[in-house]
């Protein structure tokens, strides 16, 4: 199973450099393009996930914490996508 969620320009996200969260059976990956050639990436193994928070104000923000110092803070997702990400990771 692989699901990919992309931040929305309608929610204030960047059009050219959207944030993406990809969830597989083993790893959660946050990616954002950094200009034309580079990109930032954070990988967290699912078995090390310690907590998932959804912050619902005008848009959805997700905080995925893991054991240790790694975490993912992703913004500008729709509220429904943020809730779906939490549901997948907690289930």
Q: How would you describe this structure to a colleague?
A:
Helix content is 13%, strand content 52%. The protein has 91 residues and is mostly beta strands. The chain has one domain: PH-domain like. The protein has a four-stranded antiparallel beta sheet, covered by helices on one side. A three-stranded antiparallel beta sheet has the order 5-6-7, with helices on one face. A hairpin with a 3-residue loop joins strand 2 and strand 3 (27-34). The protein is globular. The two termini are 14 Å apart. The relative contact order is 0.24. The model has no long low-confidence stretch (mean pLDDT 88).
CATH architecture: Roll
Order of neighbouring strands in the sheet with most strands = 1-2-3-4
How many H/I helical runs? 1
Helix content: 10-25%
Strand content: over 45%
CATH class value: Mainly Beta
Total discrete domains: 1
The main β sheet shows up as: 4 strands, antiparallel
Topology order in helix (H) and strand (E) letters: EEEEEEEH
- Residue-averaged pLDDT, rounded? 88
Cα distance spanning the termini: 14 Å
The number of E-state strands comes to 7
- Give unreliable regions as ranges: none
């Amino acid at each position: 199973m692989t699901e990919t969620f992309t931040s929305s320009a309608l929610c204030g996200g960047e059009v050219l450099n959207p944030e993406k969260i990809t969830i597989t059976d083993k790893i959660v990956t946050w990616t954002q393009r950094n200009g034309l050639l580079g990109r930032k990436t954070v990988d967290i193994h699912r078995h090390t996930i310690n907590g998932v928070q959804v912050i619902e104000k005008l848009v959805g923000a997700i905080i995925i914490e893991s054991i240790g110092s790694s975490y993912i803070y992703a913004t500008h997702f729709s509220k429904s996508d943020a809730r779906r990400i939490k549901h997948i990771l907690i289930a």
